[in-house]
Amino acid sequence: DLEGALRYYRRSAEAHRSIGSRRGLAMVLNNMGALDLSRGDVGMALERFEEALRIRREMGDRSREGTALLNLGEALAAAGRTAEAEERVREAQLIFREREDPGRAAAALALRAEILRERGDVPAAEEAIRRALDLRVRDPRVRAQVHREMAEILLSRGRVGAAEKSAERALFHAEAGADREDLARVLRTRARVVLAGGDSEEAARVLARAEEQLGGMTGPELARVCFERGRALRTTDPARGRECLMRARGIMEALEGRGAAFPERAEVERLLGGGAGL
Questions:
Q1: Does 1 score more than 80 pLDDT?
Q2: CB 3.0 to 4.6 Å from 248: which of 31, 41, 151, 227, for a disulfide?
Q3: How confident is the model at residue 5, as a pLDDT?
């Protein structure tokens, strides 16, 4: 229940403000920002992460400053502000390296790779993700994130077989320790790889499982799952495919009003405007 969690955190934030607990307030702001991102309320997430970062810097809390920078970078990327996002994530990565924290350094490198890939700099993205792999972290959630991004990079290079192996590794680790939203994200990548290999029916089944993981949560990840499901179904079940694309469009339109950006939006419109199979 995201709304219930946000109500709880609002009360907690008010309590921390009233007693002057800046450390506690920064922690709550980060938690609230993460929930805002899951809901697609990117503008609010940015406000909360920026305030949390200010507090951490004023307190001289270097380790938690890195976490705040990483969170802010993720929110900036979700807003389509990729140049700023990459810079904040790079700052976080340097702090984690300085603090000898390989787990969070790998998470920062994976997010940086994703941002670079989406900006079209695939060679730099691959370099970053290979550095993350070299850290050999044990946290299954981080390992899932790293292997998922490697699968996306390999897929962008047309190396479907290698991408499939990375997607399988990502799924293994996600099922071992990721939360439901992260598992849905890994399943979406897995479906993209399967679809690139020509099996649209299996891709649609994987995406149905991804939607189940989201449990009715209407956020950016659901929009992307619906988009990919529409792509997968457009040749085998055009009517259902169009329905999925229309749903993706509706979610994207609603969340764009709250600061979210969707690079997939143009493709949604192209397919709904009469692409193959529709």
A1: no
A2: 227
A3: 83
Question: Exposed, middle or buried by CB within 10 Å (0-12, 13-18, 19+), for 25?
Answer: buried
What's the confidence (pLDDT) of residue 135? Answer: 95
In DSSP notation, the chain reads -HHHHHHHHHHHHHHHHHHT-HHHHHHHHHHHHHHHHHHT-HHHHHHHHHHHHHHHHHHT-HHHHHHHHHHHHHHHHHTT-HHHHHHHHHHHHHHHHHTT-HHHHHHHHHHHHHHHHHTT-HHHHHHHHHHHHHT----HHHHHHHHHHHHHHHHHTT-HHHHHHHHHHHHHHHHHH--HHHHHHHHHHHHHHHHHTT-HHHHHHHHHHHHHHHTT--SHHHHHHHHHHHHHHTTT-HHHHHHHHHHHHHHHHHHHTTT---TTHHHHHHHHTT-TT-
The yes-or-no verdict on residue 275 having pLDDT over 60 is no
Q: What pLDDT band is residue 4 in, cutting at 50, 70 and 90?
A: confident
What is the CB-side half-sphere exposure of residue 29 using CA atoms within 13 A? 28
Residue with tokens 């994530």: 89
